[in-house]
NlpC/P60 domain-containing protein
Amino acid sequence: MKLIFSLILVIFTLFVSANANVESQVDRLAQFGESMNITLSQSVCNAAAAKAEHYATCGCPYVWGGTSCGCGGSGGMDCSGIVYTSFREAGWTGITRTTTTQYKQGTACSGCSGSNTSGCKAGDLLFYCFGCSGGVPDHVIMAIGGNRAVQCPEPGQDCSVIDIYSENYMLCRSMC
Ligand SMILES: *[C@@H]1O[C@H](CO)[C@@H](O)[C@H](O)[C@H]1NC(C)=O
Ligand SMILES: *[C@@H]1O[C@H](CO)[C@@H](O)[C@H](O)[C@H]1NC(C)=O
């Protein structure tokens, strides 16, 4: 009888600690560190690319620090803002807000770079350095298929669809 009680206690303890483990993993997932090395389903990246293409073709002005756009000239987004909002609207809230952290998320792209776009998948993020320091990129564009990408370039210009370019290219990260 004692043995049976001990066994039940052991099983119960294991069950509780397994649950606590899952909960603490979920808690940590909400934090930035756990969204590094993430690999989402490609459908999330396809949806993010479609959102980004929408904003890049609806008259969304570049606004430094901006993350929302009414289109037709209202609101605005910056280069990492369109990435941030597009992934969130595609259902992934783990994307961070700025270029200086987005470049650490996901995994290295395979077969996609500024000079060779043959393996670029929708949603891949290509990072650039225009006067950046310490190896931390200061510009990001999102691939949307083929050799095309979406970018919000600089004040006075709208977000737009462009060809992926190699000047000042640094690195590429894929979330899917
Ligand atoms: C991400 O992957 C790199 C290289 O495999 C590894 O060094 C790093 O610890 C990983 N980071 C996390 C948060 O898992
Ligand atoms: C581009 O990358 C692909 C792999 O994704 C490779 O097969 C091809 O040789 C590369 N082209 C050039 C010009 O480097």
